[in-house]
Write a structure and sequence with these properties.
Length: 762
């Protein structure tokens, strides 16, 4: 009989209970005791859902108040020494300070978890980094699960992945040097878990799907040989990519079990099943933990049967990865098109699918014949549905030529024309797009959505918010303004709601970082733009000021990455369809007199495949999609793009190929380290390194911002530098945002005075 298990479950709650509880605690409306109680209730509820679905081993430790990597830092007692916290007495408030910063210290760096839109808190290392007793939270949660008579399987980030995803804060030092010091801390955790009656521990090592340097690969076998002696059986879990090239040594390693992703890399299964050791279990990830489409149950059962014929009871069944990346429960969606809803499965439904596969494997296909037949019918219905095809979109794609992917002139010729049209000073100041979404703005949008506020009243409310945003920016002295995005619920959802081929949920929330949750749209069919999406709002903002106002759009790659994309055609095709829709919007904005248009691509790096061999193809179509969206404008129209919270050093040539006139990037948490890579590469166009970390309530002083700008000016030609925050200001409050922006404007003016030959005031 195969064992079924889950690698992780959505932690935020079907109604975003965790988000609300955390933010209430941050605001001082509740205290740590109330927050802890919400956590206990959510953990119990989620464990019982999984157990009730037939899961034999429930994950413990997949719950996090902010992020699982930050949890691992807390468990290991490895909080950065700069905060001065006592490792074994870390409070919840101190834990949140690590993620959000405080008056004395900026927050720890944040970046994307592999090729997902989930953000993790990056561990900080130096030669003196110590490990050893940290928080007790994991051990408490194990006892909670045992009290419910469940069989807990603690989930830990493996030591090599933990180190590899961290960052050195000291020159001439490699974080891999810390492994001998780190392993005893892991062993101590494992011994405590073993003493508490835990039989299996899941060790997540997804970096094995990457192209690792030899010294990192060579560290795995001895590391796990040491940890295997600590007591519990270890399940080494990989996902997001094939690890077939490591099959030989993984099968001979000291761990008691391996988990591999049979959705992203089904071709690797045969190599693992062949000659699989008799003393190990092999877990197959048969249900897609990254997307929302129903599983082809017949095909998945065939995979399980084939492996089970060789492995017998040594076969385990699971989703491909943690279900953190999908919404919790499809049954809550009562307004989705029923036909489209039939094609979908969220976390709860994915566990039900796993139960069908398990039943079929145990009792034979006849026991699940009805389920298989119904799934076959639904898959065929989807494939033949007229909802998914638009012949007009296909014709437009077939009619594209090379000229559609190129600007009329090179940047060196465009730039003077744009400067003349926009009349901006040196070190021009701008923001990334959004301004605080006040309770008044949210209430107006909600009332309009419920039908309680008619179209005219809603327009008046949004125009009032736009006027406020423009007036505040003019008072602050910003140079290139934005309209503030009051009318937008989310940078992807807003546009998807106005495009054909997209479907939307009401409760399909997914955690992005901390308490930030998003509802990814579902791309079910060919994408097209029925009518303009932003021209009215941007045009109104421009009518209020003589300063230029940027048009604000989300780029095609991000629209794809931050949606649940269709799986019945290549992602490249879907990206180009979205690009055509964005191109139409860019053309309408330009025709309306908008001189600068920002096409945000924060997910550009996120989409990069883990394997180097797969990257050229992705970068080729991703660059083409952006250029298709952006290259239809005149030379004096300035195209901006924005990217954030990713490592860009390895794709700088592709970023340059985008040929955006201005790129704004997140660099504040890394203290401008990323900008050095842009400088060393010789990035040819204008660049705006972020100088204000908008994910922290901390307000940076003007001198601090100027120090960052001086560092930037040493790496990049000052004539090509812009001054801006790291990201949009949607989640901040006006008082802190205004003070930070005022400090930013003053720092920019100081830079102008310093750079001016006469030293005159700007």
């Amino acid at each position: 009989m195969a064992v079924t298990h889950s690698l992780g479950f959505p932690r935020i709650g079907a109604g975003r209970e965790l988000k609300r509880a955390v933010e209430a605690c941050w605001a001082g409306r509740t205290g740590p005791a109330e927050l802890a109680q919400t956590g206990r209730e959510l953990r119990e509820r989620h464990w019982m859902i999984q157990s009730g679905s037939g899961i034999d081993l429930v994950p413990v430790g997949d719950f996090a108040w902010y992020d699982q990597m930050l949890n691992m830092t807390a468990l290991l007692g490895a909080a950065p020494r700069r905060f001065g916290f006592q490792a074994d007495a870390l409070s919840l408030d101190q834990y949140f300070q690590l993620a959000r910063g405080n008056a004395e210290q900026p927050a720890m760096e944040m970046t994307k978890w592999f090729d997902t839109n989930y953000h993790y808190i990056v561990p900080e290392f130096d030669r003196e980094t110590g490990f050893g007793p940290g928080t007790e939270w994991l051990f408490d949660e194990v006892e909670e699960a045992k009290a419910l008579r469940l069989n807990p399987k603690p989930v830990l980030i493996g030591p090599l992945t933990y180190l590899h995803l961290g960052k050195e804060r000291q020159a001439g030092f490699s974080r891999l040097e810390l492994l001998p010091r780190l392993l005893p801390a892991y062993a101590a955790i494992l011994r405590r878990l073993h003493a508490s009656g835990v039989h299996w521990v899941q060790m997540d090592e997804p970096i094995l799907g990457m192209d690792l340097p030899p010294e990192w690969l060579e560290a795995f076998a001895p590391a796990y040989a040491a940890l295997a002696e600590a007591g519990p059986k270890l399940l080494l879990a990989t996902y997001f990519a094939s690890v077939a090239e490591h099959a030989v040594w993984l099968k001979s390693s000291a761990v008691a079990g391996l988990h591999i992703d049979a959705v992203r890399a089904p071709e690797q299964v045969a190599g693992f099943v062949k000659d699989f050791p008799a003393d190990k279990v092999l877990s197959l990830g048969l249900i897609d933990g990254r997307n929302v489409w129903r599983t082809d149950l017949r095909r998945a059962l065939e995979q399980a049967e084939s492996a089970g014929a060789v492995l017998g009871e040594r076969l385990w069944l699971a989703p491909s990865c943690s279900l953190l990346h999908v919404p919790q429960d499809l049954s809550l969606e009562t307004s989705l098109n029923p036909e489209i809803k039939d094609w979908l499965a969220f976390a709860v439904q994915k566990l039900e699918e796993l139960a069908v596969i398990d039943k079929g494997l145990r009792l034979g296909r006849q026991a699940v014949a009805a389920e298989l037949a119904e799934r076959d019918r639904l898959l065929q219905t989807r494939a033949q549905s007229p909802l998914i095809r638009d012949p007009g979109v296909k014709r437009r794609l077939e009619g594209l030529s090379d000229a559609d992917f190129r600007r009329h002139s090179p940047f060196a010729e465009r730039s003077p024309l744009q400067r003349e049209r926009l009349r901006l000073p040196p070190f021009p100041t701008t923001t990334i797009g959004s301004f605080p979404q006040t309770p008044k703005i949210r209430a107006a949008r909600a009332a309009h959505r419920r039908g309680e506020l008619n179209g005219d009243a809603y327009r008046d409310a949004m125009q009032a918010a736009i006027r406020e945003a423009v007036n505040r920016q003019e008072s602050l002295g910003l140079d290139l303004l934005v309209h503030g995005e009051a009318e937008r619920n989310d940078m992807v959802e807003y546009f998807g709601e106005r495009l054909a081929g997209y479907a939307f949920t009401k409760h399909g929330w997914v955690q992005s970082y901390g308490s930030r949750c998003v509802k990814p749209p579902i791309i079910y069919g060919d994408v097209a733009r029925p009518e303009p999406m932003t021209v009215e709002w941007i045009g109104y903002a421009q009518s209020l000021t003589k300063k230029p106002v940027k048009g604000m759009l989300t780029g095609p790659v991000t629209m794809l990455q931050w949606s649940f994309a269709r799986d019945d055609q290549p992602r490249a095709v879907t990206a180009l369809q979205i690009a055509l829709a964005i191109r139409d919007e860019v053309a309408d904005l330009e025709a309306a007199g908008v001189a600068a248009i920002q096409i945000d691509e924060p997910a550009f790096r996120e989409g990069l495949p883990l394997k180097a061999a797969d990257r050229a193809d992705y970068l080729d179509w991703a660059v083409k999609a952006f250029r298709l969206a952006s290259c239809g404008v005149a030379d004096d129209t300035q195209i901006h793009t924005h990217m954030c919270y990713s490592e860009f050093g390895d794709i700088l040539p592709a970023i340059a190929e985008l040929d955006a006139d201005v790129i704004t990037i997140e660099t504040c948490r890394s203290a401008m380290d990323l900008l050095e890579a842009f400088g060393a590469f010789g990035y040819p166009n204008d660049i705006g390194p972020g100088v204000y970390d908008i994910h922290s309530p901390r307000v940076p002083a003007g001198a601090e911002i100027r120090a960052l700008l001086e560092k930037a000016a040493a790496a990049v030609d000052p004539e090509r530098l812009w001054v801006n925050p790291d990201c949009g200001l949607k989640t901040r409050q006006w008082p802190e945002a205004e003070q930070a922006l005022a400090n930013m404007v003053e720092a920019a003016r100081a830079m102008r005075r310093a750079e001016s030959p006469a030293g005159s005031a700007a």
